[in-house]
Write a structure and sequence with these properties.
Length: about 325
């Protein structure tokens, strides 16, 4: 192989000047020097690229933390599902106006403690939303140590009108209300509520006249919180020889009325007798229709949150 190099001039036998071309052999010593310089240059470029990749890998955790802590952006599996603005580890400090969390195009800001153990947060939808329950938004409450102490699904609202703000209110147990320091909005999809990993059983007995009324609630939890609960209620005479059936008849009517309400929903396992009623509420599939039934707790509620609330009402939980 050769390299062409232009020569100044040459003459032919007929004294005509032409440009000459000289062929240089690349296998000479000078060309070996050229090849060595090229190799060194390529080696340096390879080192620079390698160092750049290594630095990026080392700095990646820092870059990620910037985008998940106090930035207006949040790293999520689905980009822009949740956008944080001036938050503390993705949370809003209760009682401070600064900061906001926008989830599924709904902006949440200005969380406040109100009277009667109630916490509120202002929301402002950027677009009209008809199926609020389908957003799968959850309002979470954290204590000063940034530990989760309560979770409530953002629901029970028929629809959201574009640019019309409102206040979402959370009724808290007194203990949790005092502990509450931060508020966060997250997204938990229905499929993330799968296998039941824990239960909580709460019971209550009441003596009324010559009868005992017994209530039992079994709450079923997944790793993401409450999924369903089983309800059973019954009434029985303390003295079976007592001929007064006034209390029994009273609760027979109460249970029958409750059964009529439940039949307007898709609540499962309804079993009614003259002295008892049982049923199962699956919160992930619950459809209330035009029923007046009120859920005891929202899907995703955590165990401690329910236990404290039940015990404040004199129920026994274990």
């Amino acid at each position: 192989m050769g390299l062409f190099r232009k020569k100044v001039k040459s003459e032919t036998k007929d004294n005509t000047n032409i440009d000459g071309i000289e062929i240089v052999d690349l296998e000479g010593s000078n060309d070996k020097v050229v090849n060595t310089l090229e190799q060194r240059k390529e080696f340096k470029i390879a080192i620079i690229i390698g160092v750049g990749v290594l630095l990026f890998a080392l700095l990646l955790p820092k870059i990620t933390s910037i985008f998940t802590k106090d930035s207006i952006f949040t790293y999520t599996d689905e980009v822009n599902e949740v956008v944080n603005n001036k938050t503390v580890d993705g949370m809003l400090e209760i009682g401070k106006e600064e900061g906001s969390i926008t989830a599924k195009k709904v902006k949440f800001y200005n969380p406040l403690k109100r009277t009667n153990n109630q916490i509120s947060v202002t929301y402002l939808p950027n677009t009209g939303i008809n199926n609020v329950d389908g957003l799968n938004l959850y309002v979470e409450i954290y204590n000063s140590n940034k530990n989760l102490i309560a979770r409530v699904k953002f629901t029970n609202i028929e629809k959201l009108d574009r640019k019309v703000q409102g206040n979402y209110k959370l009724d808290m147990n007194e203990t949790l209300y005092k502990e509450a320091e931060y508020l966060k909005v997250t997204i938990i999809k229905d499929e993330e509520f799968s296998n039941i990993t824990d239960t909580l059983t709460c019971t209550y007995e009441n003596i009324e006249g010559n009868s005992k009324v017994y209530y039992k609630r079994v709450y079923n939890f997944t790793n993401n919180g409450l999924l369903s609960y089983n309800i059973s209620k019954s009434v029985s005479k303390i003295d079976i020889n007592d001929v007064d059936n006034t209390i029994i008849e009273k609760y027979t009517k109460i249970f029958s009325t409750e059964n009529d309400v439940l039949k307007k929903t898709n609540i499962e396992g309804i079993n009614l007798t003259d002295t008892s009623i049982e049923y199962i509420v699956n919160l992930s599939t619950l459809e209330l229709g035009n029923s007046s039934y009120k859920k005891l707790y929202e899907q995703g509620s955590i165990k401690r949150q329910i236990e404290l609330s039940e015990e404040s009402l004199k129920w026994m939980c274990e």
